[in-house]
Structures are given as C-alpha cells and as structure tokens.
Amino acid sequence: MQNRRTRAQKGSMRIKDVRDAYASRKKREDRGDLWLYYVVRRISFYLTWMFLQLGISANQATYISMAIGAAGCGLMAFGDYGVRITGALLVSFWIVLDCVDGNIARFKKTSSNYGELIDALSGYMMNGLLFLSVGIGAFIHIESSFGLITRFFYIDLNESILIILGAWASLAIIFPRLIYHKFMNAFPEAQSAEIKPGAKHSKGLYHFGYRMVHNITSFSGFLTPILLLATIFRLLSIFVFFYALMNTGVLIITTGRIILKGHRLSEGVDKL
Prior knowledge:
Blueprint: H1 2-10, H2 15-20, H3 24-30, H4 34-54, H5 58-78, H6 81-108, H7 113-140, H8 145-153, H9 161-186, H10 205-217, H11 223-232, H12 236-266
Helix pairs in contact: 4-6, 5-6, 5-7, 6-11, 7-9, 7-12, 8-12, 9-12
C-alpha cells in the first residue's frame, strides 16, 4: 500500500496500482452484476487513473457523475433522435463514473460516511429521473414501436400513458429501497442476506431469479446498454412498457418479502 501511494505522489502511478486497490470483497459483491463486473468496472480503472492524475477526489467524482447523469436524463427527455442517443451515452458514462468514485476512495483510503451518502444520492437521483425522462421523450417523439404495443394489447392507448408509465417505473424501483431502509431502522438486528435487496450470494431458486431480474433492471446490470440499443433502434416506447412491468414485479416481490420478514421478526418467529 505504501509503495502504491508513493508512486502516486511521484506521478508514476500505473493502471495496475488502481486495479490492485479493487478489494477481494468488492470483487465478490460485483461478480453478480455481469455488465458491471466484466465491462464497466474494467473501463473505470482507466478513468480512475486519469482522475487521480488530475487530483480529483472521490467526492468530486461523485458530483461530476451526478451532473453527467442529470444531463443525460435531460437529453433523453427533450432531445431529438441524435440528442437522445447522446443522452443514452451520458447515462452509460454515469455508471462508469459511479465506479470511479469508489475506486478513488479505495485507492486513497478516503472512504467516508459523507461519500457514501452522496453516492447513494446519485443512485437515487438516477433511478428517480431516468424512466420518467425516457417516458417524456417517448411521448414527445412518438415512435412506430408505440403502434406495436397498441396492437399487442388490442387497445387504443393514448400516447400520454408513456409519461405515466415512466413515472411509475421510477417510483416502483425506488419504493422497495425506501421500505428496506425503514426495515433496517426498525429491525437493526436484521442482517439476513435473503431479505437485503442488494444481496447476490444466497443460494436457491429465488437467488437465481433475483440475479436474472437484477441484471436486467439495475444500472449495474444491463439497463444502460439496453437503453442505448432501444434509443438507437427507436424502441423507447417498448423500453418504457417493459421496465414499468419489470419494476412493478420488483416492487411487489421485494416489498412483500420485507413486510413478511418484519412481521416474522416482530412475532419472534425468526431468530437472527
């Protein structure tokens, strides 16, 4: 560790030094997120090296990521075709920067509660903005894919439903996280891996299903490349419908499990 810091101070820091700071525990956490682990994290090491050379701190990297993520959502909502593609690329860049701040904190040993707070704020911001932004953009620029949806459901849908579904998709993905944090405050002794929304290492059919859904619906999964492809091929209407459905499933299952766990704990059924 001392050698790595010395090289950084002398300006001879290598990409390998940044990669070596990627702790084994963090690797295990990331391994379930296929896109993050095999693509995003590896790209982030090079960007981390550049940020360190420029003297950018972990918290500053988080602020930069928030600005880029918000800009990407804005372009997705109000831009034309080419601008929306730029927006999708910025959203993809946001998840890379979301890794960079953690890389910097681990490399420089500057992790802090405040850093965790603003990092969480960045994630909540993107979950709250992205689907609504895509819904607004899909409404403003109605694509032919919207007609496919109306024919599939055999009903005449008003285009404004895209905004409603986008807003609902954002709410549905945030709400279980809020319930989980309230659950942990109400039952601080509860550290069960099977109830924690971010758990990726329990076993069984539920865990397999969780990993599949998580890799589809999470920013650390395939959400950003799916968004980029949907933008390029003008399928944002289908994107909004699909994620409104998927996020609703996440809302129902995760919230139900948290409530059931809380009830069992309050009744003394579960022993932790």
